[in-house]
Write a structure and sequence with these properties.
Layout: H1 15-26, E1 34-41, E2 43-45, H2 55-65, E3 73-76, E4 82-85, E5 89-90, H3 92-111, E6 115-117, H4 135-146, H5 151-158, E7 162-166, H6 172-184, H7 186-192, E8 198-199, E9 202-203, H8 209-215, H9 230-240, H10 261-265, H11 273-280, E10 287-289, E11 293-295, H12 307-318, H13 320-330, H14 336-342, H15 349-366, H16 371-385
Antiparallel strand pairs: 1-4, 1-5, 1-7, 2-6, 3-4, 7-11, 8-9, 10-11
Length: about 400
Amino acid sequence: MTVIGRDTTERLRDCADVRGFVERVCFKTGPPGLVGTELEWLVGVAGAADQRVPIPRLRVLLDAAGPPPRGSSITYEPGGQLELSSRAFAGPSACWQAVAEDAEHVRHALAAAGLVLLDTAIEPVREPHRQLAHPRYDAMEAFFARRGDPMGPVMMTSTASVQVNLDIGHDAADARRRWELLHTVGPTMVAAFANSPVHAGVGTGWRSARQRVWQRLDPSRTAVPAGQDPATAWAEYALAAEVMLRRRHDEDWSAPPGLTFREWLLADAGPDADDLALHLTTLFPPVRPRGWFEVRYLDAQPWRWWPVPTAVLSALLDDPAASQTAAQACAGLDDWTDAARDGLSAPGLHAAAVACFDAAVTALSRAGEHPDLVALVDAFREHYVRAGRSPADDDPEVR
């Protein structure tokens, strides 16, 4: 079977080529300031929580409604989750205003047909069920099955997140600072925005059962990359990870069991840059560098609150005083499991979250961000963070 791309890009010769690709493509630096977001939702039938919504029905409804007015794209995850991906905007206010229009456009079209966007980050009633048929997802499902990993199907079909996209930084030093800070504040942000306590009809004992899923998957592709230099760390992470799938002209995209990308480099028909780019899409760390930082560790939020994670992380990264406050407040609070399970009741996380949100509100105001967005972040701070709560602690009937 012929791998697609062999005749379009040169074969990667060695690990140095991988590192070069990572530095050139994944850690592309420049003046920061652009902000984007990807909103995933689980979709349900109003008043019938156990009913599935077929993807073809979603497509018909949203095609009839026309494209989102502010340019976001609509895609679907394997279980039928709907994803709205924004363009990049100059700052959190512009991003919020544009995505708010697009998100309301989608919600209105679905509501007219009796469908709702669920206010949780994991399926609260329905068991995992894959809808999309594609060689990528066939290979992914087979990979997890071969490993005996029951969380694979849950991850693919039953979870939803708010992903925040932020610039890499001015230069390599700034990229390292921003990379380190996104990981330093990660457990605190996981706890503050935890919103998935119930899965498949069962209370999980975790504020973020979605994070529990990610933490129990293959750690070679879900853990935090280790190393002082982020580009080197990401290159080594990619080299060490097992190849999940290989794009081919036929329907079989499976990869040989146990083959790491480093080992593939040594093969006679080794990978090319297209193969590496595909491999990187099968790695799911808390923060994934893609020419921007894609922050992946946040639960999808109840409708009112979806803009808050983007505003908070943008403020903490871009404002020097807020960055320093957040780094100091979250230093040493690196237990992602405690954060996901116990939320802001985990040791140290309540005080850290209050400090981060105080700094973010101040930074957003100082930057002249839209007063309504600042007020929304402030409302989340008062309603949840100061009280040591997250959306996971809400009664779902009164959200």
